[in-house]
Amino acid sequence: MFFFESIPWYNVVMWFVVLGLLIGLNEFVRSGKRASQLMFMALPIALTPVWLFVVDSEITSWFHWVKVYSALAGALIYMVIRFTNYHKKHPWYLVLVPAILAINILEAVIREFQVGFMGFNGVVDGMNYISGGWNYVNAFAGILNILTICGWFGIFATSGKRVDMIWPDQTKLWIIAYGIWNISYVYSCAPGNAFYSGFALNIAATIPALLWAKGTWMQNRAQTLSIWMMWVMTFPYFFAVGSTFNVSVSYNPAANWTLALISLALNVALAVMQVSRIMKRRLNPLKDELWTDTEEYKQVGALRETESPNPKTA
């Protein structure tokens, strides 16, 4: 196969199990404050000693440690918006949302440059790598993805049975550009479980945001990534090389180039569209929402009418 080696039926089943569990657990934490506190406060506190003193893993690098806590930081920051009025009294707090997103992307960009610059070829941190020009191409796409984050002062929280953080100016195009960039990153820099953490993890955050929970992609991404990273830190070998459920990438440079070039093309197109819109409408990308006149924005922005001055506390 082009992107992966053979994919047995039981690995296909496991892929859907992973996808279903991530979506299901994301819906669980969307259900309320207590569920979110259990998943993103109590559970990581309980697991941190396990990661430090019990799990002995050769494949847990610095990146895994940074990623799990930065993802959890995002989930906690978004919980404040979902369940309190703090962001209304202190609008600066909303800047933390794009900040944690940008930091997460930047972490991956740095890792991408590291893999390319150090010429990872062979087994490094327990994973087999090949490196090449695609690392630099995708790193540049990641930088563009950071620069095209926009409209964070329009973020708000809904009320009702499920309290969500909504980001109306985070368009489908940005989400898709991010998704392909992240898949390309994982494929090149975390190839040991790219079948799951590249494709299933990205799709798990996107499906609800496109279908029944529009505008929630950022929230979904932080929550599903936190859940995935806690699993990886606790059971690092479950999908690793040698596991029944491991699916090896093809290690075909053409596959790496394909993903990186698609990632770059999408992010360049997004950047061109945003710059054009900013110039034509004389918008300030640091303060203004860029897509308010689009049907997509209006549909998601209409949820603002359900915003409550007193979000649920339980």
UniProtKB/TrEMBL annotation:
TM stretches of this protein: 6-26, 38-55, 61-80, 92-110, 136-159, 194-213, 225-248, 254-273
This protein's UniProt keywords: Membrane, Transmembrane, Transmembrane helix
Secretion signal span: none
InterPro entries assigned to the protein according to its UniProt record, in alphabetical order: DUF5692
Name of the protein: DUF5692 family protein
Organism name: Exiguobacterium profundum
Lineage of origin: Bacteria, Bacillati, Bacillota, Bacilli, Bacillales
